[in-house]
Amino acid sequence: MSVLTVACEQTEVLLFDPISSKHIKTLMEAHEDCVNNIRFLDNRLFATCSDDTTIALWDLRKLNSKVCSLHGHASWVKNIEYDTNTRLLVTSGFDGNVITWDTNRFTEDGCPHKKFFHTRYLMRMRLTPDCSKMLISTSSGYLLILHDLDLTQSLEVGSYRMLRARRTPLTSDGGTSASRSAGTPRQGNDSSKIHPHREGLSPRNSLEVLTPEIPGERDRGNCITSLQLHPKGWATLIRCSSNMDDQEWTCVYEFQDGAPSRPPVSPRCSLRLTHYIEEANVGRGYIKELCFSPDGRLICSPYAYGVRLLAFDEHCGELADCLPVETSCLREIRSIYSHGDVVLTTKFSPTHCQLASGCLSGRVALYQPKF
Question: Where is the composition biased (Polar residues) (predicted)?
């Protein structure tokens, strides 16, 4: 059975049949505060997280009550990921913590958990499709990448020092430059790598700290509010806004192969900005969640009272087939305006030719192409 689940601000979770658009069920008081994210673990079990600081597990076959509630965060829980290799549930919240939960051993009272990572200003956390990397975005404009990910090992890093560490700007060939004139635009990202090779620590989970290049924001800070990964693991997609909230951008960064296993003399960034587009910046202050299509050829982005379908070229080609030599604009394929309020979230169906969007007033819209 295919189910569309909707997280609501008013403590509820809604379930729809995506084919008929019929409402199936409402989970009243699923949480005690806003529901922020929903993640399916398999074809029946799913998890929800909330501003009430908890995570709840649900079974589609028995929706009258939760399977269990998980307690461990000290602030709003905003993100849920799932490692299919280890069956570890991974959550992040505004307390700065990334926590892993062993769903192999859950009971009615919860399941074993431990703090995997902590950093200040945490906004979003994502795992790559093969679970080999973890990406974390922050409200201070940093993007953190954990390479060769091992979720069974906690990574202890002094987050305040790390996010204040001075980095050297990269030149266009990935090398470092000692100085740069004030009027020269950046050709890459600022980067530093912290590798936990101290005695007793795993050689895995090497940490890279980036300040991604943002068009139009070369001299000002920015906040990375939304973070998504290409379904084939080729790139990361972010939505960011300026610190003054007067500009908003969607950017695509290609993963560059060969992240070094130890700090090189001239470090090379793992990400390269390939495509971007400026957004309407309607509904300032609200987070807008964008997404890739299942094949990775399209991006759906909230745009004022509707959505925009964006592509890497006019033919909706694969990213790998149309990587530009220089950074280029995303192509707008179509805009759809069907809401009476600011659109905050979008999602492609993983199995059907279908797209959903949700707006601030609570309306959900479903789109299907006409052939």
Answer: 169-191
